Amino acid sequence: MYFLTSKHNRYSSFFGGNASSHKLMPADNILLSKGAIAPGGFKTFSIENDDVHFSCASYTPKEDLQLHKVPVNHEFFILRMDDISPAGDVVMMTDNKHGTRMYSKNPSVMLMSSLEEFTFFAAKGSQVKTLEIIMPRRWFFSRLPMKCPYGLLKKYMTIKSRKTAADAGDSLIKELFVSTIKEAVKEVPDVDRINNNVSSLLNTYFADFSSNLNNFLESERVKVSKDEINRLISVRKYLDTGMPAPSFDSLTKMAFMSGTSLKTKFKKMYGTTVFEYYQSMRMQKARILLLTHRYSVKQIGRQLGYSNMSNFTIAFKKEFNQLPHELIKG
Q1: pTM above 0.70, yes or no
Q2: Which of its termini does the chain have fewer beta carbons within 10 Å around, N or C?
Q3: Residue 210 C-beta-side C-alpha neighbours within 13 Å
């Protein structure tokens, strides 16, 4: 396995430090591998007047590759997108004093701070495409439409890590990502087009990120007493069974709360709605039953309260990106 280590920093520093030790060729912000580690290209760009720098990479590791970036003393933010093919998952991890976040989704979107450790792994022979954008701290906060206390931002990035990825604009972001990498690997890339793509990508990303962050800040204002916590735990334990759900009115009686309080305080505690949590537990139970190979898809669907098997398969596919019969065959 190849191991590359560097500090979070401008790309010229990373290229210079690794070029000498791994026989690479840095020139004009372009790093071309001669094949010693990973044939491919690494190019850097900047958006004028914004002090935003980004790199585009497309390469194929000749051995398993692990990239480790260590924290620096000054903070900036990094938005990183990776796509690995064929079939391999992206595995990325960040560590800081608030805990660990791990991503194994492909393609992936990760927002992190230069104060965090970062590890990236790609398997031998995979085709790796990466876009990494460095954003100065002041510039990053200027893109948020609301004032956000720094501590709450860090808490959001740690606890709500899945929400740091794009949501409504996800498909557009992927489209811009693919287009940017495709243009960047050309022998003579259109720099204006690349810059426009990245600017559009950032605009779309921040629209979604700001919306999710605002929802998080609203939820942080919700107060939950110790007694309410115990009652919400009782509701959650019932939902954990995955059994056919009672009516929402029955759940409010179980929690001794109004419908509005149950919705807001359950989401405050568990980061998801009552229905989304229940549905996830239901699908987890379905997966366990399927893996026993003792029941048919139809039997499991009925056991979980589905009269329409199409609704069951759609829900399972949404949760696991796989149809129930595909799991059994696998």
Answers
A1: no
A2: C
A3: 14
Q: If you average pLDDT over residues 175-183, what whole number do you get?
A: 92
CB 224 within 8 A of CB 232: yes
Q: Is 122 exposed, middle or buried (0-12, 13-18, 19+ CB in 10 A)?
A: buried
Which three-class secondary structure string do you get for 99-161?
Answer: EEEEECCCCEEEEEECCCEEEEEECCCCEEEEEEEEEEHHHHHHCCCCCCCHHHHHHHHHHCH
What's the CATH number for 226-329? 1.10.10.60
Q: Which residue, among 270, 246, 249, has the nearest Cα to 259 in the 3D structure?
A: 249
Residue 124 burial (CB count, 10 A):
14
Supply 131's token pair: 């876009």
Task: Give the pLDDT of residue 202.
Answer: 92
d(CA 15, CA 132): 14
**Buried b / exposed e across 76-111, counting CB within 10 Å, b at 16+?**
bbbbbbbbbeeebebbbbbebeeeebebeeebbbbb
Confidence at residue 93, expressed as pLDDT on a 0 to 100 scale: 59
212 pLDDT exceeds 60? yes
2-220 belongs to CATH 2.60.120.10: yes
In sequence order, the β-bridge partners of residue 244 are none
pLDDT in tens, 19-62: 444 444 333 333 333 445 667 778 888 886 778 999 998 888 88
Question: Do residues 44 and 53 touch, judged by C-beta distance below 8 A?
Answer: yes
Q: What percent of the chain has pLDDT over 90?
A: 20
* pLDDT tens string 294-320: 889 999 999 888 889 999 999 998 888
Residue-range domain boundaries for the chain: 2-220, 226-329
Q: Is beta strand 65-70 parallel, antiparallel or unpaired with respect to 2-7?
A: parallel
Backbone angles phi, psi at 2, to 5 degrees: -90, 135
